[in-house]
Specification:
This protein has 128 residues and is mostly beta strands. Helix content is 4%, strand content 37%. The protein contains one helix and seven strands; from the N terminus they run αβββββββ. The strands form two sheets. The chain has a four-stranded antiparallel β-sheet, with no helix packed on it. It has a three-stranded antiparallel β-sheet with strand order 3-4-5, with no helix packed on it. The longest helix is centred in the N-terminal third of the chain and has 5 residues.
């Protein structure tokens, strides 16, 4: 397997600066003109995962809450709360370019390696 350095390289440097227990562990692959982002989201329900595209950033937020009502916690090693991860993918992407699926504790996000080219809308200038 060959390693191709690209703009995703910078994203992994931020994990050294923060507590890695709250970072969504991620693998990124490139195949057939697409990037596939695979994230571990074990123990998190699909309804508690949000994917946001804004200003060229793809932000994934996942929340895990363990119901502990009427239960005495003897030991807790798993993180509860909010996980998040952001990737700068460029400003050319639109919501419809990105596909996401959830299976067996993993989140899969698929996006083209290059934003889809779109014809620009014709804008008319008013003559005064």
């Amino acid at each position: 397997m060959r390693y191709y350095p690209n703009y995703f390289d910078d994203f992994f440097n931020d994990t050294k600066k923060q507590d890695t227990s709250t970072v969504l562990r991620t693998d990124i692959y490139e195949k057939d003109g697409y990037y596939q982002i695979c994230m571990e989201v074990c123990g998190i329900q699909k309804e508690n995962i949000q994917i946001e595209l804004k200003d060229g950033y793809l932000k994934i937020t996942a929340t895990r809450n363990i119901n502990k009502e009427d239960t005495r916690v003897l030991r807790q090693e798993r993180f509860t709360g909010t996980y998040s991860r952001s990737f700068y993918i460029g400003e050319g992407y639109k919501q419809e370019d990105i596909k996401a699926s959830f299976d067996n504790g993993e989140l899969f996000i698929l996006l083209p390696t290059k934003p889809v080219k779109r014809e620009e809308e014709t804008r008319y200038i008013n003559i005064q």
